[in-house]
Amino acid sequence: MATASDIKIGMCIDMENKTFLVVDFQHVKPGKGPAFIRTKLKNLENGRVLDKTYSSVSERIEPVRVERRPYQYTYEDDLGIHLMHTETFEEITIPRDLIENVDLMADGQILEVMFHTEKEVALTAELPPIVDMEVTYTEPGVKGDTASTNSLKPATVNTGATVRVPLFINTGDKIRVDTRTREYYERIK
Q1: How much is the mean pLDDT over the chain?
Q2: Using one digit for the tens of pLDDT, what is the confidence trace for 172-187?
Q3: Which of the following CATH numbers is that of domain 66-126: 3.90.550.10, 2.60.120.10, 2.40.50.140, 3.40.50.150?
């Protein structure tokens, strides 16, 4: 058991037999009255984010031991997404909805899968923050479009996903995409 004062971003806690990830927290010491902790918790089963306030810094919480392991994407079928551990070569299958922005995942992509160590259950899987992709189709750029233009156009990348890119990007260009926001990051020379 731990207390609410031990809460940190990225920590997993058990509440009502569900696993929650601490997305944000704020320790508040008002001028009048006792201190309290305001948190944002993400339910790892359904992805919903809820606000929870711990009225006392000594209030008990139940931390959950989690482990992050590297897995490589191999293929997808009706059962789900098949991954292989990069060191032990153990294969697992996880549901598609555990991965955010799954359409940005390319063959052989390395993912970081978070496991509940006591139950040995996959909680989430994350793509690297930035991935390299090739633009397979976009409308051609027009002479005069420069890097300083703030206009964006849709582009289809090699995984089939559509991202918004600047006007100077053409079919065949290699780009970097931020997997958290699905935004264009930079062009690779």
Answers
A1: 89
A2: 999 999 998 999 999 9
A3: 2.40.50.140
Residue 45: HSE in the Cβ half-sphere, 13 Å Cα cutoff = 7
* Statement: 2-63 belongs to CATH 2.30.30.30: yes
Q: Which CATH class is domain 130-188?
A: mainly beta
How many CA atoms does the CB half-sphere of 72 hold within 13 Å?
10
Q: Looking at this protein, which amino acid is placed at residue 92?
A: I
Can you read off the two tokens belonging to residue 131? 């991935």
Separation between Cα atoms, residue 43 and residue 47, nearest integer Å: 5
The two domains 66-126 and 130-188 share their CATH topology (first three levels equal): yes
In whole angstroms, what is the distance from residue 168 CA to residue 43 CA?
Answer: 41
How do beta strands 174-178 and 152-157 pair?
A: unpaired
* pLDDT interval class at 144 (50, 70, 90): low
